[in-house]
Amino acid sequence: MLRLAGVTVRYGGTAALDGVDLTVAPGERVALLGASGAGKSTLLAVANGSVAPTAGAVRVLGGSPADRRVRARVGTVHQSLELVGRLRVVHNVNAGLLADWSAARAAWSLVRPQGLPEVLAALERVGLADRAFERTERLSGGQRQRVALARLLVQRPDLVLADEPASALDPVLADRALTLLGETAAARGGALVAALHDPALVRRHCDRVVGLAGGRVVLDRPVAGVSAADLGGLYGAVP
Ligand SMILES: Nc1ncnc2c1ncn2[C@@H]1O[C@H](COP(=O)(O)OP(=O)(O)OP(=O)(O)O)[C@@H](O)[C@H]1O
């Protein structure tokens, strides 16, 4: 489903990833943990093809992550959300369907939202049906995070990548968001890889923990085998 072999990403003198080997199988729910700057976002960016490795090889769903057909099957909740603030919520959610559409249909969707029943159903699932026609920039940070989640739901990807998808959500909504991400991956027999900081969410929603430090994998274990001391090692102190 996802395979990184000896992947290094350099930004000038900094190695954001340094010789990372990682294989994720269908059905797995993997939590990426690590301190700020450890390389979590870079690993997700390499997996969705938005960053090319300086060295090493990446295979996603049997192909290259740069391949347009592969990218259409990979859904990402970005840390920066990647929403267009002046567009209405429905238009941003619609973008999850774009890969399946012709250019003409995509352009027309900006005038008249296409796939509306699906879009509204996704907004209902994230608790935002009543904000569907509002300008996205008027929503709170947590509401915007749920718009990005709804966009991923309508995309129905095989591989779900999420970069701190619950960082702006209250505990109940965070739990719901992780449930939806896991269900979305499971619906297509896929996998979930999520950068998370909350150990409680990790324990409830993931099977495996991959810990990064300084761009290297320093921990790779089933979640049941991860101790508070392991987490302390990743973050420099026991949380
Ligand atoms: N576009 C970039 N240009 C230069 N350096 C970058 C860039 N993106 C990331 N880096 C560097 O790569 C390293 C890893 O960054 P990354 O964003 O992957 O960490 P992270 O674990 O996701 O951190 P956080 O938890 O703060 O989001 C950091 O040292 C960062 O400064």
TrEMBL record:
Pfam families: ABC_tran. Residues 2-239 form the ABC transporter domain. The keyword Disulfide bond does not apply. Keywords: ATP-binding, Nucleotide-binding. One of its GO terms (cellular component) is plasma membrane. One of its GO terms (molecular function) is ATP hydrolysis activity. PANTHER family: ABC TRANSPORTER RELATED (PTHR24220:SF685), IMPORT ATP-BINDING PROTEIN (PTHR24220). This is Phosphonate transport system ATP-binding protein. It comes from Geodermatophilus pulveris.
